[in-house]
Specification:
Layout lengths: L4 H10 L62 H11 L5 H12 L5 H21 L2 H7 L2 H16 L3 E20 L2 E17 L5 E21 L8 E8 L1
Antiparallel strand pairs: 1-2, 2-3, 3-4
């Protein structure tokens, strides 16, 4: 692990094998929402979800056996400060939030975080599309996981399937960051390209397009307990933009 947090974070996300999803539309809503209706994100939007709390420790992602006892090494502080300046203007709320996380977590590096977040995005939407619950449980907070699983269950009850191809991420940028009560939270805005279609039990397309490439904007919030030895993050809330 050459740079501590970046490598561990990236490897932790990339060790999980999965297979794809489309237009994630507000699976568990905004970070400030309250209720959590079991909405299928492939077919409609709806508010839900909440920010991580001290009672919902988002600290564990699977690592390779050889890495489980390893501790992420501190990242050079001046280097982190320079990377923060490339992300947010000096003195801005975002810059202050990132600096607060770096002060609380000496292994934090924004560039490494974004690499891991990009990998996590593809893997989570992939797992959702294929109905693969196991990797979702590893990558999501408890409440977000319950919402995803509820939507998958409803889809299976209707005998619907998702035909999906992940084309790529055009852009991933950090839009918000905060350090509260021992929990770090970072919000990322993803601009991605996907090909997707939902088919009913007879194979007819009822949503999306199996050929057309669609542009999708998703806003995801990741969090982790900075007091934990585990450097990994979990998805705690999602929001989609029309």
């Amino acid at each position: 692990m050459m740079n501590g947090f970046p490598d561990v974070f990236t490897v932790a996300f990339l060790v999980v094998a999965v297979v794809i999803f489309i237009r994630l539309r507000s699976v568990l809503g905004k970070r400030t929402g309250n209720e959590r209706p079991p909405v299928d994100p492939f077919t409609r939007r709806g508010p839900a979800g909440r920010a991580a709390s001290d009672d919902d420790k988002v600290i564990s992602l699977p690592r390779r056996p050889a890495e489980r006892d390893e501790v992420a090494a501190p990242v050079d502080a001046p280097a982190v400060e320079e990377r923060i300046r490339t992300i947010a203007p000096a003195g801005s709320v975002l810059a202050q939030g990132l600096a607060a996380i770096a002060a609380a977590d000496k292994t934090f590096d924004p560039d490494g975080f974004l690499r891991g977040a990009r990998g996590a995005y593809e893997m989570i939407v992939t797992a959702f599309a294929s109905g693969d619950r196991k990797p979702l449980k590893q990558l999501l907070s408890r409440e977000v996981y319950e919402g995803f699983v509820s939507a998958i269950g409803q889809r299976e009850t209707r005998q619907e399937s998702i035909e999906f191809k992940f084309v790529g991420i055009d852009k991933a940028e950090i839009t918000d960051a905060s350090q509260k009560g021992g929990t770090a939270q970072i919000t990322v805005r993803f601009l991605s390209k996907l090909i997707s279609a939902t088919r009913d039990k007879d194979g007819a397309v009822i949503d999306g397009d199996p050929v057309k490439v669609g542009d999708v904007t998703d806003i995801w919030t990741f969090a982790r307990d900075v007091s934990s030895r585990d450097p990994n993050w979990k998805l705690v809330a999602t929001e989609s933009v029309e």
